[in-house]
Each structure stands twice: as C-alpha cells, then as structure tokens.
Design goal:
Two copies of one chain form a homodimer. Chain A has helices at residues 46-49, 55-62, 73-82, 91-97, 118-130, 144-156, 166-171, 173-181, 195-203, 211-224, 237-257, 272-286, 304-307, 350-357, 368-382, 388-407, 425-432, 443-450, and strands at residues 9-10, 20-22, 68-70, 87-89, 102-107, 135-140, 159-165, 185-189, 228-230, 263-267, 293-299, 309-314, 323-328, 362-366, 412-417. The first copy, chain A, is globular, with a radius of gyration of 20 Å. Chain A is α/β, with parallel strands linked by helices. Chain A is built from 18 helices and 15 strands.
C-alpha cells in the first residue's frame, strides 16, 4: 500500500475548520413541518419555545431561510480543541473485504465524549451562557450526549442536570462517572424527583426507562427552575444545524482529495449525526448540482423510518413537549430490553423525515447481531473499537462494499463513524458470549403504539 | 485566542511519520549495563535470549551501536492507521493556570488501546510473525499493553495469551472484554495454569498479583509452548527503541513550529513512554548539541528512581528472567493496594537508569490524590480525560507552569499525555467520593525489600 495517493487519514488545517454552519432547510423546497403547541395545535411561536429553550437556539430552530449561520468565535475556539476530525480511508477494511469499493469514514470519536455529540453540546452551552442562565437540563440514553454536555458545561461554568435512562445508568456506571468528572448531576430516569417521573413509575413500576420519559423529566425541571433551560442532543433542527460541521469538514476534505462519494451512509436514532454528515451533500442534491445515494441505517428493533408513519406526534412520553411531524413509532414505544446502545428514540428528526418523505434519501434497518459482527470485524482490521450506534453504518457500508465486489463496481462509499465503544463493553461481552439476541417488533405491536398517536 | 500563530493541534503529514527508530544507546557514552544470566551472572548471549524473545527483537535489544534502525514497511503501514499523533498546545490549560509558560503535550491516546503501547506492540507482533511463530505471551497491569498487543496480534493473525494482574482483572472487566474483542486469551495472575503461579499462590494466598508475578507466568508459558515467545511492553531497550517514534514526531512538529522545549516531562513506570518521548532530545543532549531539563515522574507509592537503588535485580517475581541493572525497589516489591493505575513496576528501564545515574535527567515522585486533582482539572479545561499514569506528568507540568507564574519566566514545557482514562473510572470515582488515599512506603519497608536484592 506504499504507493497510494490518498492518505490513510486526512486532516484539514485548523484554518479550514468551518466558520459557519450550513442550514439545509434553506435549500429544501418542502420545509420541515413546524412544531405545534400540544394544546392549541398551532405552530409554536418563538415566545412559547423560549420558555423551554435558549433564545438564540429558538431562532436557529425556526430559521428556514438563512443558508449559513456564523459560528461564534468562542465555539470555534472550543472546536479547535478536538476538531478537525479525520477523514479516514479504510484501506484495511477494503483489503479484508476484497472489494473494489473505496471506503471512507469521518471519525468523530476522538474526544472524551466519545462521539459527535460535542459539536452541538458546546453550541447549546454557549448560547445558554450568553443568555446568562445558571444551567441546563437534558436527558441521555447511551450516555454520549450527557457526557458531551457535561464537558461543554464544565467549559462555560454552567450547572448541568442530566436525566439518564435507567437501564443505561445501571449498565454503564462508568459513563455516569465521566459525567461526574465534568461536574454534572446525573439522575436515573424515571425518578421520583419530578411529577412526571412519579406518574410514570406509578403506571409502570419497574420500568427501565426510555428517552421519552427522560426528556419529560428534564423539560419539567427546566421549566420549573429559575435560570434553567432544556437542551436536546438530537432530533431538533438546531442540532442538525450544529452537526453540519461534520459534513462540511468531510466534504472539504474529499474535495481536497478530488474524491466524490457515490453513497453516503449514517446511523439514525434521532438523526443528528446523519443530518450533519449529509448536510452539504444533500444541499447540492437539493440545488440540483450533484446526486448522491444517501442511506439512513436504523436498528430493526426501533425502525422509525422503515416501519413508522409520518405524522404529528409527541416528542416525549409525558407529552409536555411540542408536537413534531416526523416518522414515528408512537411516543410510548420503548425498544425491547435486549436492544444495545443508543438509537432507541421513537421518532426522527423532522428535517430528515421530510427529506425521506420526499424520496431524497433511503432507509434500511439492520439486526443487532449483524451489527456487532460488523463492529468486531471493523475493530480488528481498522483498529478503532466502534460504538454500537456507529456500527449500524459500518454494517451497511460493508454490505454495499460487498455488493461492489459482486458487480465489480468501484463505488466510493462515505460513512459516519460517530463514536467509540469503550463504554459499551457489556454489549460486546454479550455478543461475544453468544447471548445477544435480535428483536423485531411485530406488526401488531407497532399498530398498538401507532393507535396512540395524537389525532387531529 | 484568534490571533495565535501556533495551532492547537499540530499533525505531521503522513509522509513525515518517522521511517526509522532512533536508538539512544548509540549516543550514550556510558552504555546501559547488559542483561545477565541469573545462573552464571554472565551477559546474556543472543542465543540465550532467543529462547524467550524473537530473534530480531534480541538483535535490537543488544544493539548499542546503530543510531537508526529502519521501521519495516508493514509496521509503517500500521502506524499510518493511528499516527501521526497530535502535538497539542495546551492553550486552555495555560489560561486556566494564568501562567506565562507555554505548555505542549504529545497525545498518544487516540487509538483503541488508549495509549502509546501500540507503538511497540505492533513492532513486536510483526517480528514474531516474521519468525513464523504461532503466538506470543505477555503480562499486563493497567491493561493498556495487553489491549495494544491484542490489537497487534489480531492484525497479524497471531495467538495472544495475556496474564493480567489480578487486581486489574477484577477492577477492569471492560479492559478484559476489549482484549477479547481482539481475540486475546486473558488469564488473571497469579493463576493455577503455571508452576510459578501455583507457587506464588501457595506462598501468598489471596494476593492481588503484581507485574512481577505476571511476567514470570507469561515467560513460563512462552518457554514451555512450541512456537511461542514472550513479549514485554516496557523496561526493555527494544521497547524504548520502538517508542522513539513518539519523540521523533514530537521533535519534528516542534521544529516545524520553531519551538524548543526547556523542560520535558513524562511519567515513568518501566520507562517506555518517557524513554520514547525524550529520545531525540536526549540524543542532542548526549551529543552536546542542545540542553534540556528532563523530568521523570513516578508515584510516591512506587518510587523506583527517587528511593530505589541502582543495582542488578530480577525483572520478575519468579526470578526466571535475566537480571537487569536498574533503579529498583526489589523484585518482590508490590505497591500498596490503594495505588491506582499502572506505574507499579518495581524496577526501571536500564537505559533510563543509566541516564539518570549519569545526571542527565531528574526524577520526582508525586502522591496520587494530587495526581487526580491535576487529572480532573486537565479533563475540564483541555477536554481529554487522562489516564492516571499520564496524569503524573500533567501534575508536574502544572507545577512547573505555576513556578513560571511566580517567576514570570516564559518557559516552554513539553509533556507526554500517554493515554486516556476511560477504563479507570473506578479510580476517578474513588477520588471523587473522597475515598482515595495516599501511600508512601516507609524507609523500613523499602529496606526490607532491598535486602532481598541478589548479591554478587
């Protein structure tokens, strides 16, 4: 491999880190549907949203027009601590697969949060600080978002209250400890510290929690506490905006190398990493300047895109949040207990939902044992131990590369390696010991949850 | 900070990764003392060493003459998977300390092994494969070396048997799982699978193990198994040779930036990271071309340099290894159970021992609560969660920077950030909960172990 022209890793110069986020919505003909007030079913106003979210973030949430939004210097400075992230040519994986495909991945795991989540966490913490707030509240599932937010809050000296889905809190005590190192206050959810938590515990004693529950608790605390706002690590338009830094860097690096991807693949839970990765590519597609195959990969156990419906739904179990139009399984859907890692949210980013509904991207679902097979293979040949979430994208990147092997096509594949799996060793152990099982909800189960969608 | 000239992170180009290791011994006037046969007390011959180590590695171990040794292309190719590692300007730490000092660190934690250990693991696995061996055996303490070797063996399809110090095996189940992902076979040490393990268990029932025990077990298995050799992650001359890639990259990056360090700081357990980091700088010092203050930092609970003696000693508890002349506390010294992380080896690299004895470097010891204070501060301001081992260097870098604050001197400090602390959350938790204690062995205790040094 000595003669290759393309390096293993391409780092942009620090001066090439994007100075503005790209707002896909500006180029969308069909804009994502607005958030609705759950009481009046009218679009949420900036004023209404301002009770829950920081003012500047509300403006970003509602902004369907500005194509670029400048990244404040303080955030740029923090980005330089761990960005640019490398664009990696997966030579070792290509060789192991014997594929003519050229595989690239954008690796976002080289920071202590272990994932891309820091890109939005630092932005959200910055605007909270700018507004003079005392602190923020949030939920976390697998723990990456909570860790990222803790780091960001430590940097700006903000208080950080994290509601962690109980099953993760128990399975991942070290995740909790990392958050504590950064000074965060971590509570397992559902908890008895909130009204909604008490209600959920009464209705479902012994529940292991869900993102939907944890969101409700975090929102309740934010709304009831002076000087606090709620922040969210995925789903929202503002989060996709911040995460566009992933795609902008990836595209700049590929442009520098003179390479154009044919297929772009990302895992999708709430959609933040995928939305960020595809942003500038989708922008070209929306403007008719280029075409790309874009594939969202979701777990078969939580198949919002592939088996959900596109409808207005609650973002949380407690139904305190605005209604969002999105691909959803129903707000009380909780993935089976055998489901490992994140990607367990019942809904999907409204922006991605609209793009998917418009036929601008595809979606596939994969079973978790197949995902961990891909993860272990990737770890052994490419060195990096991937997060279970990221491994969904690896699975499909491998599948697409193997198709190229059959057809002889030299396609260029780009996927998002969103994070590392250091805190997911319980899941790896299960897989290794042959105790990991797959779960695919039946049509009947899904219909049951779907029947609870709000009707209006 | 927008106007700074020096970037936060400096990455060399892939083409600038060193193609030869630098062998400090070639420039040392006083060579490190040779390894001795424990039976005859004569220098170990290549033939004798060849029973335990791979042939090419024996040649490197004994080579006091060649200044540069070419890095085989296969190893260079693997290095490109995770190297060059970044040289980071610690702007955030400088700001937090309010120091005029300029602090740099070479960060070796951006790979799944979580540390610099991979630099030597891949080299040792390569030479084992080249020799046509079936596999290798080794010991691991904190687990970084075992992980690195597992990754390297997976890459070359070698079998990998790891004896893990029992206390770490129990405290760090996830470390073990990572090794299993890479296909390694991990046994807690002392074990009943070896003669020496059985003997140690008989003499010390309930022992939590030590590196010295684990080495003895790994060597026994290597010597008794057809097609196996033993490999070691520190102490040996060959390991320092491989680790010179750290210092060569650091110096190349600093030269590029036009910066010269005044003080170079590294943690020291067996000496591999420190020896690697300082190599090219020490080379200039040995050749009289430049001067640098070089500081080894060791734990107060295992103070080989600062309170040990420079003498021939056994490298392992079972006394099956060659004798090495080194700063040592005695081969049956085991750090107190409250000691967190690695840096628990009773001896020190013979190369570094000679350099220290010649007054070419300094050593200080630090207590672990002070180390974790520095670790937590570093995590919060620089983002990266450091390994406890690396945090020893952080502690002294901070202390030196604070001295500069007092004197107003603008010294340039370079330290080695050898790894990340993702698998050390038990220790962080203890620190956080105020349950971490310090331990300094008394003179009487040290005298007791010293009395057992071999006499001849």
């Amino acid at each position: 491999m000595a003669e290759q022209k393309i390096p293993y890793k391409t780092y942009l110069d620090e001066s090439e880190i994007p100075t503005a986020w790209y707002n896909m919505r500006a180029d969308m003909k069909n804009k994502p549907a607005p958030l609705l007030n759950p009481g009046t079913h009218q679009p949420m106003t900036a004023e209404e949203l301002g009770g829950v979210f920081c003012a500047d973030l509300v403006a970003q949430e509602l902004d369907n027009d500005n194509r670029f939004i400048a990244i404040p210097e303080e955030i740029q400075s923090f980005y330089r601590m761990y960005r640019p992230s490398p664009l990696v040519r997966a030579y070792f994986l290509e060789k192991a697969l014997g594929t003519p495909a050229k595989i690239y991945y954008k690796f976002e795991g080289n920071n202590t949060s272990g994932s891309h989540k820091l890109n939005s966490a630092i932005a959200q913490a910055y605007y909270a600080k700018k507004q003079g707030l005392k602190g923020v509240t949030t939920e976390t599932g697998a723990g990456q978002w909570g860790t990222a937010l803790s780091m960001a809050c430590a940097y700006f000296g903000l208080d950080c209250k994290v509601f962690m889905v109980k099953v993760s809190y128990e399975q991942k005590p070290f995740r909790r400890e990392v958050m504590r190192v950064y000074g965060a206050d971590v509570t397992p959810s559902p908890s008895t510290t909130t009204e909604i938590g008490k209600k959920i515990l009464e209705a479902h004693p012994g529940t292991t929690g869900s993102l939907g529950c944890a969101i409700s608790e975090a929102v309740e605390v934010a709304v009831k506490s002076e000087g606090y706002r709620y922040v969210l690590g995925s789903v929202l338009n503002q989060v996709l905006l911040h995460q566009s830094v992933i795609g902008l860097e990836a595209k700049a690096a590929m442009d520098k190398l003179g390479v154009k991807p044919d297929i772009i693949i990302g895992c999708a839970g709430g959609g933040s990493n995928l939305g960020g990765l595809i942003s500038p590519f989708m922008g070209e597609k929306l403007r008719g300047e280029a075409d790309y195959r874009i594939i969202a990969v979701e777990p078969a156990s939580c198949p919002s895109f592939t088996r959900g419906v596109y409808a207005y739904d609650f973002c949380d179990t407690g139904m305190v949040c605005p209604l969002a139009k999105m691909y959803t399984l129903g707000s009380d859907f909780i993935p089976s207990a055998n489901h490992a890692g994140g990607l367990r949210y019942h809904g999907m980013s409204p922006v991605l939902s609209q793009l998917y509904d418009d036929g601008l991207m595809e979606a596939v679902s994969v079973e978790q044992t197949k995902v961990f097979e891909a993860a272990e293979m990737f770890a052994r040949v490419e060195g990096t131990l991937p997060a279970p979430e990221s491994s969904h994208a690896i699975r499909v990147a491998i599948d697409e590369a193997l198709k190229c092997k059959e057809t002889g096509e030299e396609k260029t594949i780009l996927f998002g390696l969103t994070g590392t799996g250091y805190f997911d060793m319980v899941a790896y152990e299960k897989f290794h010991d042959g105790q990991m099982t797959d779960y695919i909800p039946t049509d009947e189960e899904l219909a049951k949850y779907r029947a609870n969608l709000p009707k209006f």
